From TrEMBL:
Signal peptide: none annotated. Belongs to the UPF0065 (bug) family. This is Tricarboxylic transport membrane protein. PROSITE patterns: TAT. It holds the Pfam family TctC. Gene3D superfamilies: Bordetella uptake gene, domain 1 (3.40.190.150), Periplasmic binding protein-like II (3.40.190.10).
């Protein structure tokens, strides 16, 4: 894949989805400015400066209770329990798929005392909203975990494999409505459509506000199939109310006994990964220290317990490997939005 990274302030190469209407763009800008000003004040007061082992603020770019927030708070608990950082605080800055928080982080140039949890959805949001600030404008530190996705149908659905479902989908794309818990799940469905030979523009996707709403859409028959995080669907699969047709991965996942998309002939591996970023312009010494803090955190037993509890998959990347991964993901996600006609 070609490298889609670009210097701050320049436009990325390759196709981008159409810009939003002027009214929508103005509304988002006003909202981002209002929230961003307040958030910036919170960040500057929370970050005391000085020794990174003394005080660290972790931004969760969404409201409390979601995946980014959970990741940030598990890091906080681990760092406190292990004495990795004396005082770790979590600051929630919700809005616009994580791009408001990203803009705030970019405004803290040279201040390493604040880092941000990010991930696939935030990267997608920068493309979807044609964000003026993108991940390349801040300092990448690591990816640490990924939430594995699954493809599910109701238990009495007449499909025993992903190919059974794909065959019906190819025959009449509109007759197989899909759902999912957010924009990331729609990207997975789009990727599945391409792999199955279905034009994404012709597919029916019912947008749901979170995994719970998507589950209800399957149970009440509004949707035929769904993609979602394994933790959200695990109990329904084990209780026999859902039938799982695939785990979205390129290789079998330990602890999840179901066939993967790839081994069934569908080259779909998009995962909901969690990343960590620092402000731009920090020193190499501070970046190295932040990476060391992250590595100690993910090696701690408290973090390993969280990984098991949430059925996360370890996905640690640093340095050049991380840079290449983020560039490839940006290219893939931009291509999916283009295929959707967005």
């Amino acid at each position: 894949m070609s490298d889609t990274r670009h210097p701050p302030g320049s436009e990325p190469e390759g196709p981008r989805p159409p810009r939003r209407t002027a009214l929508t763009a103005i509304g988002l800008a006003v909202s981002a400015g209002a929230i961003g000003t307040a958030a910036y004040g919170s960040i500057t007061s929370a970050s005391g400066g000085g020794d990174l082992r003394s005080s660290l603020t972790i931004i969760a770019p969404a409201a409390a209770g979601g995946g980014w927030d959970t990741c940030a708070r598990e890091m906080q608990a681990t760092q406190r329990a292990g004495g990795i950082v004396n005082n770790t605080q979590v600051l929630n800055i919700p809005g616009a798929g994580g791009t408001i928080a990203l803009g705030n982080l970019a405004g803290l140039a040279g201040r390493p005392e604040t880092i941000m949890v990010g991930g696939t959805g935030q990267l997608a949001a920068t493309i979807q909203y044609d964000s003026s600030v993108v991940l390349e404008d801040v300092t990448p530190l690591a990816t640490i975990v990924a939430e594995i996705g699954v493809v599910v149908v109701k238990a009495d659905a007449p499909y025993e494999s992903l190919e059974d479902l794909a065959a019906a989908w190819r025959e009449d794309p509109a007759a197989i409505p899909w759902t999912g818990g957010g924009s990331f799940d729609q990207l997975v469905v789009t990727s599945l459509a391409i792999a199955a030979g279905v034009d994404p523009v012709e597919m029916t996707y019912i947008s749901s506000d979170g995994g719970g709403e998507a589950i209800q859409a399957i149970l009440n028959g509004t949707a035929v199939a769904a993609t979602g995080g394994y933790p959200d669907n695990k109990d329904l699969i084990e209780s026999g109310r859902f039938k799982s047709l695939a785990v979205v991965a390129d290789a079998p996942v330990e602890g999840i006994d179901m066939p993967t998309t790839v081994e069934q002939g569908f080259d779909v591996t998009l995962t909901n990964w969690r990343s960590l970023h620092a402000p731009p312009g920090i020193t190499e010494e501070d970046r190295a220290e932040l990476v060391a803090i992250i590595q100690e955190t993910v090696a701690a037993p408290e973090w390993q317990e969280a990984v098991e509890r949430y059925s996360w998959m370890r996905a640690e990347r640093y340095g050049e490997e991380l840079d290449a991964f983020l560039a490839a993901q940006a290219e893939e996600i931009a291509g999916l939005y283009e295929e959707m006609g967005a």
